[in-house]
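Marked as duplicate of an earlier ticket. Keeping the data here for the record.
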Amino acid sequence: MSARDNTESQTTSAQDQMVAGSAWMTAGSIFSRILGAVYIIPWNIWFGAFYLQGNALYGKGYNIYSFFLIAAIAGVPSAIAKQVAHYNALNEYGVSVRLYKRGLEIAIATGIGIAALMYFGAPLFTGGDEHLIPVLHSLSWAILIIPTMSLTRGYFQGFQQMAPSAISQFVEQLIRVIYMLLTAFIIMRVMKGNWVTAVSQSTFAAAVGALGGLLILGVYYWRRRREFQDLVANSNNELVVPASQLYREIIAQAVPFVVLGAGITIFQLIDQYTFAPIMHMAGNYSAEHLNDLFALFGVNANKLIMITISLASALAVTVVPLLSEAYTRGNKREISGQLTNAFLMFEFVMLPSALGMSAVSRPLNIIFYGPTQEKLASSILAFSSYLSILLGLYTVVAALMQGISQNKRAVRYFAVGTIVKFVVQWPLVYFLGAFGPLVATGIGLFVTCYLIIHSLDVQFGINYAQIAKRTNGILMAALGTFALARAITLIGGLMGSESRTINFLITIVAALVGGYFYVYMVLKSRLADDILGSRVAGLRRRLHIH
């Protein structure tokens, strides 16, 4: 086999791995996100008049928790996945096992330290909202468990084994949602209790779910232990890496992951701590009204758009180990091909998802949150759906930079975007109200994404001609999906119904018609084959598309 044939074979294999890995991670992430959104319907009904206040409190607590959690995990899972893939590419599986064990020690230590800081320092992070203290106390318990669980997921991903991560993620979310709904019903409906207590139990569900997810990973590890042992036994065993060097590698790779992984959360925290003060300068608004507005743009819309953003996240965690292997081999052509494939796969799933959600924003909002402030809430959700494209793109490009060990540069670019967000935040919130933080986030992330993509192109070359040609096809099919879904939504909206059942039916019909149109167009034009490979030919035959 010639060198060129070998390169092409490696590229094809990498693309197959990316598609297969993305399929597992996308499935796990999507089902988890859907579960994380569906619970909202009964949860809001049981909270009654307190549901917007409860959502605002829940969202504020989770934003702070997410930042602490990322600090506790310290980027170790993604760093472990990247470094494990690096050593596996060198056939040094023994080093990979030692790396995992050292990472576990770091994760446990940081988990204990950050959990203690969050629990005992809770009053310092409330921003004046005393209701946040019990919520932060309940969330701190999850930080004791999740670092170990996330680290183990990263270890599996480094071996290109995505199924354990995806399934444990789904089980974690399932147990969390069951606990949330059970405690919310008992406290709010049976005991007629306090809504703050109910929110605190809903957030404590994160710890309960994490235990379930960790148990699933433990079962997978036990079943595959012989496979790992055989790989170690057949390693080259030529590298002798001291424990101190392993620690340094993990920390050096992990710290930038903290900043980049917390990127969206950092932007949300900026909104959380600046929105109310700026709005108080703009007008005489009550704290309750501003909490309601924060719930609409900072919590409610976020829960739904994160379903589509999770598609990009799934792709991101899949591409890091693959890029790391290509980078280790020094194969620039393979890196360029994977970058091009990553962008195309992102567009392939993100554009129709975001446009489709925007098209059904009104009925979707009523299904999950009811008719309260329906017009404003629907407009915010539609705008957030467009914004989700930039949020998802940031997730992908940050992962691409990490995959080629350009963490520090990526952090610098994110810092520039954050400064831009700060600069435009005040005037945009002052004049645009609840839409201001969303516009500011979009501008800041656009700057970051542009800088990263430009850097990748300069170093490795991105096949813009190929991307542009296929983007045209994706965009046309996605716009057709949007038009059909929007038309069905408008026709259904003529009934003027605020019934959840009626709006659910409208959403389902719009999603099925629009979704089928998109699938038909990308299969008919063979666009899906170009992006996902020849395996989609079987789907075309089953759907009788020629």
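See parent ticket for discussion. The radius of gyration is 23 Å.
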